[in-house]
Structure formats: C-alpha cells, structure tokens
Amino acid sequence: MAHLPPLTGDTHYCTLPPGQAYPVMFSNIREMKARGTPMIVLGVPGNKELQDVSDIFIPIPDGGTLYHLLGTTTLMQLLAYKTAVALGRDIDQPRNLAKSVTVE
Questions:
Q1: Edge-to-edge strand ranges of the sheet holding 56-59
Q2: What is the pTM of this model?
Q3: Contact 68, 60 (CB under 8 A)
Q4: Mean pLDDT throughout 33-56?
C-alpha cells in the first residue's frame, strides 16, 4: 500500500485479504478514509463493510489468503502503472516514496 500512492498521486490502492491481518488493515483503511483519501480497494465479494468504506470496490474471488495476495499483486501493479501513465507521472522516479517501514 505504501508504494502505489506515490506513483499515482493521492488515491490509495489496497488489497484486503481475509485472515489474521484483516482487522488492522481495515482500521488503516478507515483512518485514511476519515482523512479524505479516495480509496480503491480489492476484496472478497459480499464484504459489505469494506464496500461501504471504499470509493471503488473491486471484488476478487475468495480462494484463500495466498491466492488472494498473489492474484491481486499483479492487478494492483498494473492498475498503478496505468494510472501513473495516464496522469503523466514518471514511473521510474516515484515521488514521496516511504523511507521506512513500520512493523506492528
């Protein structure tokens, strides 16, 4: 999630797999949304709370956490690339790239 917004501008893209990390990721999405950040979220179909907090919700079939993560990574990278190109961003020089990673 940290590397896509610098390429595209102010919109955040994220994938929310089912499983142990869901509560933390959902809390992060709600916090960003409360700050006015447009959200494009990929998640399992039928997740009403995720659809409600998303500006754009892209359903991804539920095949387990590993399938979900592998299946969405390529889609997210392609979406970020196409968006960056459409906005005229330099994809080889992302702006405001995060310098650190916070581990919970």
A1: 12-15, 39-43, 56-59
A2: 0.61
A3: yes
A4: 86
